[in-house]
Amino acid sequence: MAAGKSGEACYNWRTFIQMCGPRLGAPAREGKRMLQRWNLLTTNQKIAVAVIGLLVLYGLAVGIGGGGLLSPARLVAVLLIIFVALPVHEFAHAATAVALGDDTPKRQGRYTLNPLPHIDPMGAILIALTGFGWAKPVQWNPRNIDIDPRWGSILVSLAGPLSNLVMAVITVVLLRVGLLSGSFAVQFGWFFVQINVLLFVFNLLPIPPLDGSHVLFALLPGDTLRLRWQLSQYGFLLLMVVIFFVPQVVRVPTTAILRALIEWGA
Predict the structure, then answer these.
(1) pTM tops 0.90
(2) 90 an active-site residue?
(3) Which among 111, 113, 119, 112 has a CA at the least distance from the CA of 78?
(4) Contacts for 240 with CB less than 8 Å, ≥ 6 apart
(5) Distance (Å, whole) CA 59 – CA 73
(6) pLDDT, tens digit, 9 for 90 and up, residues 76-116
(7) Which residue among 51, 80, 149, 171 is buried most deeply as judged by most CB within 10 Å?
(8) How far apart are CA 131 and CA 150, in angstroms?
(9) How high is the mean pLDDT of the chain?
């Protein structure tokens, strides 16, 4: 009966505002809240959301158009990147920090090869759609490091990209000795190598928030605090400039490394 009275009230003009107004206004209130959240974002964050949206649309368009992103071999390679390569990358950061005396990754549950604590949902979606993405960054405290904090920062930062290069080399070895054989396995193996080499090169760019920026900051003298702040503020914009306008910065070294691995693995 209560449900019936409530439903009838929507057709009674006198009680329309009282009974149905809140229900009709809920979508508007939610839209207003979303707009308020959008207005709280910084300019860089708004640009990031816009670029991510464009990348997702691009990935969908290429996939639907038969660009190869949805091939079985590519799919297996992408799944291994999400559930193996990216977690290993972040674990390498965590393990190096722990080995140097900082237990922050342990306390935060990041000192593990279990992929779940490392996976970032949006980064995983972009990996699936575009072949490129990210994991949750490992936090660590340079003050807890047993050696010079600068050297500690360099070692921890390099550990992640180097793990991608090591995985690429191991995969080439498996291809070379025939443990990965057959058309599907070979195709998947080289996809996996390609993405890992790309992650290795890309993460070494000295642009925040990439690993290469932490190496750069560790090498800069202490009186460059303003420069570091400026790079951090505009890092994402610089990254977009590199990706869309000077991709050769990533493409040339990636191609050179891949060519060397292909010649060695042939």
Answers:
(1) no
(2) yes
(3) 119
(4) 47, 51
(5) 17
(6) 888 888 899 999 999 999 999 999 999 999 999 999 999 88
(7) 171
(8) 33
(9) 79
Amino acid code (one letter) for 82 = I
> How many C-beta atoms surround the C-beta of residue 172 within 10 A?
23
DSSP codes, 6-66? HHHHTT-HHHIIIIIHHHHHHHHHHHHHHHHHHHHS-HHHHHHHHHHHHHHHHHHHHHHTT
- In whole angstroms, give the CA distance from residue 118 to residue 19: 47
Task: Give the separation between CA 111 and CA 90, rounded to whole angstroms.
Answer: 9
Whole-number Å distance between alpha carbons of 92 and 100: 12
- Yes or no: say if 218 and 154 are a contact pair by the CB < 8 Å rule: yes
Tokens 């839209």 sit on residue? 31
Coil/strand/helix, residue 104: helix
Residue environment code for 104-124, b if the CB has 16+ CB neighbours within 10 A, otherwise e: bbeeeebbbeebebbbbeebb
Q: Dihedrals φ, ψ of 119, to 5°?
A: -75, 130
Q: How far apart are the first and last CA of the chain?
A: 77
Exposure string of 138-153, with b = 16+ CB inside 10 Å and e = fewer, is bebebeebeeeebebb
Q: Which residues pair with 119 in a beta bridge?
A: 135
Q: Of the residues 8, 30, 90, 263, which is catalytic?
A: 90
